[in-house]
Every structure is written in structure tokens, then in C-alpha cells.
Task: structure prediction
Amino acid sequence: MSTPEPVAGAQQGPDPAARSPDGSDPVARSPDGSDPVAQAPQVSDLVDRASRVPDLVARAHHRAERLGFGMSCEEPVGPLLAVLAAGVAPGGRILELGTGAGIGTAWLASGLTGRDDATLTTVELDPVLVTAFRDSPWPSWTEILEGDAAALLPGLGRFDLIFADAVAGKWTGLDLTLNALAPGGVLIVDDMDLSRYTDSEHRAAVQRVEDTLATDTRLLTVRIPAGTHLTVATRRR
Result:
């Protein structure tokens, strides 16, 4: 039987002419002689790592399921909140409007893991959700305030990072939220995808938020069309 001709473009074995002087394959190796390809993480490992969440976040998901709360922030908001929280300077203050079951709060808190030099305040109107939050373990620098965000905002001072995830402080009273944003501070709002809304009034409210953030000269704003769509704004110094 004749040997088949190699198929054009098919991967062939190493070219003998490309071998090292000693005849071995010229495989790049680490200084310790190990094969870097063999040491590279496998796809399954990367998927497993990506599927893991901080303990606080896992507990918050269980709490949401127990409470039947289905309006928590969706990917990629959570990890982004953690990244932004991690960048808050010592002495910084973080504010969340709309605690819900605490999933967003948990992501924010996870970004401060190992620190005790910043604070996290979250505001929730529903007393049932407030009680569930207080019955759960949280870092000592985390507090929840019960009440309407629009009523509470004027007395809370300024914050370095604000996650606006409630009607009050976003759809209504956005000016109060912007006034509470410190120079250099970052505001993040989610659920900005108009296609998610069928009610014309809801669509108009979301569009007003978008227009306000885009035209306010105090802000530098970017839209991120991922997940439920996000808008992130930094207050100029």
C-alpha cells in the first residue's frame, strides 16, 4: 500500500530541519526546565474559577431564593461593583440605593475584603428586606438604612462610589444622587436597556436618566451594552 500524500494545510509533525542540534524538538521551556504548556491552566479550571463567587455573594443568592426576590442585579454588574469598590481610597464611602436581597451589597463588600478603612451604606424601603439583611452576617463597616432614598439622600453626605439600583435616586431624584457624588466619585446604574421595558412611562424614565447623565457637564459618562446595560459616570474633580 502506498503512503498517502499529506493533505495541504494539514498539521504535520515537527520539521526535522527545525530540530535542535541534539535532535530534540525545539520546545520552549521555563528556566526550571518545565514545560509551560503543561503548566497552563486547563479550560475546565478557568470555567470552574469563573463560576465561583465570594461567600457573601453566595449567601445573598440563597437569601434571595428564600425570599422569592427576583430583581437582583445581573452579570456583569456584580463583579464590576467589586472592582470599583476595591479602588475606593482609604476613608472612602460607598452607597447603594436599593438593597434588595443584598446581592449587589455583597459584591460591593467583597471588593473591600481585607480592609477596614472604608464604609458601605445601603438603603432599602421594604422592611421585610431590611430585616432579612440585618439577620445576616455582614462586615462591621456595612450598614443598612431603612427608608425612601430620596428622603434620606440630602442628609447622608457625599460618597466616592454610588450604585443606584432603586426607583428613588435614579428614576426620580437623580439630582439628589448626583449631588451626593463626591468629586472623582463613580456612579453606576444598571437596567438601562430600553428593550426590557414595555411600559411607555418606564421607557421614558430610563431615557431621562440616560439623557441626564450624558449631558451633565460635571460628569464623564460611558454606556456599557452588557447584561441589562449599564451606565457608568465619574464626577469630574
Notes: Strands lie at 93-97, 119-124, 142-146, 159-164, 181-189, 219-224, 230-235. Residues 1-28, 40-50 have pLDDT under 50 and may be disordered. The two ends are 79 Å apart (CA to CA). Residues 73 and 104 are 6 Å apart (CA to CA).
